[in-house]
Design a protein that fits this description.
By secondary structure, the protein is of the alpha+beta class. Helices cover 52% and strands 9% of the residues. A hairpin with a 2-residue loop joins strand 2 and strand 3 (26-28). It is elongated, with a radius of gyration of 23 Å.
Length: 295
C-alpha cells in the first residue's frame, strides 16, 4: 500500500470533548448505537465478550433485545469503506489496532509524566491543553462513570506533576496553567492549590498567594468543615496574616465560600454541571452533547 493510500485510510477516533470518527482526515457519520459501541471498545483495547458488551451498553433491556441492539450497532459500525473498525474473534469484540484513539496516546503521555519523565516545553503547552478535555461530556451512560473517574485521576496527577516540574524550571506561566487546570477538575483536592501558592511565592506575589490560601480555606470549611493541611499553612509561615489567624478562635463560616479561583469540579453525565466551563472557555475547549441511550 502506498503512502497516499495509507493516509487516505488513516482512522482516528476522538473521545475527548466530543465523539468524532475520521477517515483520511474526513469526518465519518456513525449512527448513535455504533458510536456507543465504538467508544466502549476504544476504552477497552484488550477486547470484551459480546454478551458483556450488550449488557453494559443496554442494561435496561432484556437480554435478547440487548443482543439485537448489539448486532445492529456492529453491522453499522464494523467497517468504514474497506477498513475494518471492529474485529470479531469468536465471541470477543475489540477495536481494530489501526484505529488511533486520542485518549490512549494522551493517557500514555500523562503516565510518562507521573513516572518522572518531563516533556519538552513545547510539548508541555500542548499536553496541558489536552489534559483539560473531558471524556465524552454529555453522555449519560452508566458504564462511563468509572472510565471518567479513571481519566480524571490520570490527568490530575499528570497536571500536578507537570506543574511542579515547570515550577522547578522557573517556567511560571505554564506551571500556573497546569496547576489551575488541576484545580478545575477537583477544587477540593489540595495538592494543586499548594502548587499555585508556591508559584505565586516564587514570583514574589505574596498577596496573590495569601488570597489563594484564603479562598481555598473558606471553600473547604464551607463544603466539608475542614481546614487546610499543615503542608499548606506552612507555605505562608511567618507572614503576619498567618500569625493573626493562629491567634483567632475558629468560627463556623457565615456564608458559602466560592470555589477557589472561581473554578469548580468538571462533571459530565447525570451529575450537576457547574462552573468548570470557566477554564474550558479560556482555552477554547469544545463541548458537545453526546448521544442518548437508544439506537
Amino acid at each position: 500500500m502506498s503512502g497516499n493510500e495509507v493516509a487516505a485510510n488513516k482512522l482516528s477516533l476522538e473521545l475527548l470533548s466530543a465523539f468524532e470518527l475520521t477517515c483520511g482526515g474526513s469526518t465519518v457519520t456513525v449512527p448513535l448505537g455504533a458510536q456507543r459501541l465504538l467508544a466502549y471498545l476504544a476504552l477497552r483495547p484488550e477486547g470484551v465478550h459480546r454478551g458483556a458488551a450488550a449488557q453494559q451498553l443496554w442494561p435496561d433491556y432484556p437480554c435478547h433485545r440487548a443482543a439485537a441492539n448489539l448486532r445492529s450497532a456492529l453491522c453499522q459500525g464494523r467497517r468504514v469503506g474497506s477498513v475494518t473498525l471492529i474485529e470479531c474473534i469468536g465471541q470477543r469484540l475489540r477495536l481494530s489496532p489501526v484505529v488511533q484513539v486520542d485518549l490512549l496516546w494522551i493517557r500514555d503521555s500523562a503516565r510518562r509524566i507521573t513516572d518522572g519523565l518531563a516533556p519538552s516545553p513545547a510539548d508541555s503547552e500542548a499536553l496541558i491543553e489536552e489534559l483539560t478535555r473531558e471524556l465524552l461530556p454529555g453522555w449519560t451512560d452508566e458504564w462511563l462513570h468509572v472510565d471518567r473517574e479513571n481519566w480524571d485521576q490520570v490527568r490530575l496527577y499528570a497536571l500536578e506533576g507537570l506543574a511542579q516540574r515547570l515550577l522547578t524550571a522557573q517556567q511560571y506561566l505554564p506551571a500556573l496553567r497546569a496547576a489551575l487546570a488541576a484545580t478545575a477538575i477537583d477544587p477540593i483536592r489540595e495538592t494543586a492549590h499548594r502548587i499555585v501558592i508556591e508559584i505565586h511565592l516564587a514570583e514574589g506575589n505574596v498577596a496573590n498567594a495569601v488570597r489563594c490560601y484564603q479562598q481555598y480555606k473558606a471553600y473547604v470549611q464551607h463544603e466539608l468543615d475542614v481546614s487546610p493541611s499543615p503542608q499548606m499553612t506552612d507555605l505562608l509561615q511567618g507572614l503576619p496574616c498567618m500569625q493573626r489567624e493562629r491567634q483567632q478562635p475558629r468560627t463556623p463560616p457565615k456564608a458559602p465560600g466560592p470555589a477557589p479561583g472561581g473554578l469548580h469540579r468538571q462533571t459530565s453525565g447525570s451529575r450537576p454541571r457547574d462552573a468548570a466551563a470557566t477554564l474550558s472557555a479560556r482555552y477554547g475547549q469544545r463541548r458537545h452533547d453526546g448521544p442518548g441511550r437508544d439506537l
